[in-house]
Amino acid sequence: MAGEANYLDVKILGREYRVACAADEREALQEAVGLVDDKMRDIAQRTKNSIAERVAVMAALNIAHEHLAAAKAKGTVVSADTKRRISDMGARLDAVLASAPGNGF
Predict the structure, then answer these.
(1) How far is CA 48 from the centre of its chain?
(2) Is this structure's pTM higher than 0.70?
(3) With b meaning 16 or more CB within 10 Å and e meaning fewer, what string describes 86-96?
(4) Whether pLDDT at 98 is above 80
């Protein structure tokens, strides 16, 4: 059934996570995981920083900046729904970071 909670096991920066995901959003989540993983690997390599929590924050800020810049360039306004979804993703990230051993990845 659409919207029913399922779980998807994903790997980001070499670490595995189980993420709640509706069946109809699996493909989009896998694309998001690929984007985040690529961005984190790029930042870790460029900055020579191996602290995953810092790399994750820098990646999140870069992705948010790119998203907002693209929306502004298109002359679109970020909708309340988009802001809510970003906030929800931030809350999920906080929960994952809080539950990870050593408060990091």
Answers:
(1) 21
(2) no
(3) beeeeeeeeeb
(4) no
